[in-house]
Amino acid sequence: MFRWPFGLRKDREKGAQSEVAQVSLAPKLDLERLRQQGLERAARSLDALERGQLPPNVIERLTSQGKGQLPWTSDLSVNEWLSLKRYKLQPVGQVMGSSYYQIGYVQIPVNAGFSGYSSASRELQAPTLALYEGRERAIARLLQEAAMLGANAVVGFRMDEKGYEPKDGLIEFVCYGTAVRVDGLPKSDVPVICSVSGQDFVRLLAAGQLPVGLALGATVYYLQTDWYDLQQEHSWYNQEMQGFTQGVYQARHLAARKMREDMARLGATGVVGADFTLRVEEVARGIATEEGEEIVDHILEVVMLGTAVLQVDASFAKRIAITPVFDLNS
Fold it and tell me: Record's Pfam families (predicted)?
């Protein structure tokens, strides 16, 4: 259906011209200037990270958030946030730290013989050290953010990690948690990090267990496949792969020993909320058996992480007053 416009043609053209004149065009973007500003901002951030500091834009955001100019954020659930208020804990913001760590050349141990009487299974030093240093860098940046917010502790700490892969040699660490301030206490220069929740943090204090930090034990272990392992793989009978089982136990033993060393450094008497993570990756050795079958070894990555606690006297526990609150609607 056609609709014929009414009115004189000159009037219609005049009205259209006036409407066009009233429309203000958007200012043209200077893409080159924006690109240059982005490069300068990235250079300042990189320079700050190399000096062990936070990027300028992060400092600006945390400063505004600490003054109350920005709302605080957290990964707490509604019920957990309500419980924190009962325990005199005030969330001040969500904090994060990250580190992308590049590992150099790693010599994969290869046993010259294949008799099974000797093995090249051992801990890989370079990736193991990378697990520690990468974590330390990420955690240090998280602590810097928490200190700027005036926090006393970081609860609900979590660490996301991309495990070691020999093909790219890159390990990624991203840690996060909720920074909290205890009512009546001054801000801490180095807040305490806990992998437990905020409620459990106060319950530990009330029970006379003082959280003193994180205890970590980690190792990257190379498990070589020997002649006995190949014979068991081709057996027609159900049986335990004793070489693989022993390798897992050995890797776990190394990680547990390092966690105990970390506990001793912190002066802790125990660990709560410990997580055990095991990652296994197959690695082709590059040689084959007489039958032409490719030999595959394994790389085990074991990480043990928990909250280290220190037993304190009963007088300290009495200072923490927790008032039970019961919700009659639940």
Answer: YbjQ_1 (PF01906)
Beta strands in 80-169 (DSSP E): 89-102, 122-123, 153-162
C-alpha closest to that of 219 among 137, 134, 110, 304: 304
Residue type at 295 in one-letter notation:
I
Q: What element of type H or E holds 13? A: helix 9-22
Residue 254 has pLDDT above 90, yes or no: yes
Q: Flag whether pLDDT at 233 surpasses 70.
A: yes
Backbone angles phi, psi at 68, to 5 degrees: 85, 10
Token duo for residue 116: 């099974």
**CATH number of 74-318, picked from 3.30.110.70, 2.30.29.30, 3.50.50.60, 3.40.190.10:** 3.30.110.70
**Mean of all residue pLDDT scores within the chain:** 77
Q: What is the structure's pLDDT at 259?
A: 94
CA atoms within 13 A on the CB side of 62: 21
